[in-house]
Design goal:
transmembrane; 7 helices; mainly alpha; globular; 259 residues
Length: 259
């Protein structure tokens, strides 16, 4: 009997991501740690106690994300065996596994290395998560086209393509706007105070564009994950088989081998 309810895994992943972002944002705003409008997502998990909520939720999400990436990899391996004419590349599928794993690892780093305390690891993790994730979903969209119409529909391929393109554009806008805005910032440049952007500061408009683009990227990522939920209904996994060798059997076997 195979286990087929993998849709629950992706559903829990989506709920965990949205709930973590929403709760940490609400708590950080309530306590006055970030402004109501236009904070970066990472800044909502920069100060206690919301940093604990942010880390806890994102650690769970990163684990589920990694499991989902592996299941997608195995799905493609099995589909290629069933449909060799699909021309799904084995090396590219393995590359996709590494990309997705890198993105999940980046999410874990972002969760545990707060931007206000250890910015360099945080930004490296964010780059792995967002850039690696964008490349991963782009590759999976290409695979979806290869799996059409047996698994993916044409409408789903179009939707994933649109989500991928919008995510890439939003990511470029986010990074470019931040790189231009930060040098113009004329407030306190300490990392712990960088969140206090105000309309009178130079570069404030570009900062708002950057933060809005980051939230859009996150939502597009979640949307991309949601598109795979229907397909997972058709995926099953056979439970592993265990063989237990009792100590008495081991002893008897060794004695028999000796004589």
């Amino acid at each position: 009997m195979g286990v087929t309810n993998f849709t629950m895994l992706l559903t829990i992943l989506v709920i965990t991501l949205l709930l973590t972002i929403t709760v940490s944002y609400g708590v950080s705003v309530k306590l006055g740690h970030v402004p109501l409008a236009f904070p970066y997502i990472s800044e909502t998990g920069n100060t206690q106690p919301e940093s604990c909520i942010f880390s806890f939720g994102m650690n769970i999400a990163s684990f589920l994300y990694a499991v989902a990436v592996y299941l997608r990899y195995r799905e493609l391996v099995h589909f290629r065996a069933m449909s060799p004419e699909s021309r799904i590349s084995v090396p590219w599928n393995r590359f996709g596994l590494w990309l997705g794993s890198l993105s999940a690892l980046g999410l874990c780093v972002v969760a545990n290395f707060q931007v206000g305390k250890v910015p360099v690891p945080h930004y490296l993790g964010a780059m792995c998560c967002f850039v690696g994730g964008s490349a991963y979903f782009a590759l999976q969209t290409w695979f979806s086209k290869r799996m059409c119409p047996q698994v993916s529909t044409k409408q789903m391929v179009v939707l994933r393509t649109a989500l991928t393109v919008m995510s890439a554009v939003a990511l470029v806008v986010c990074v470019a706007s931040a790189l231009v805005a930060i040098p113009q910032f004329d407030g306190n440049m300490h990392w712990t105070d960088q969140v206090d952007w105000r309309p009178e500061h130079k570069g404030y408009a570009l900062h708002c564009v950057s933060t809005a683009a980051e939230w859009l990227v996150a939502l597009l990522f979640v949307g991309s994950i949601v598109t795979y939920i229907p397909e997972m209904r058709a995926v099953s996994l056979s439970p592993p088989t265990f063989r237990i060798l009792l100590l008495e059997s081991v002893t008897t076997t060794k004695v028999a081998e000796k004589y």
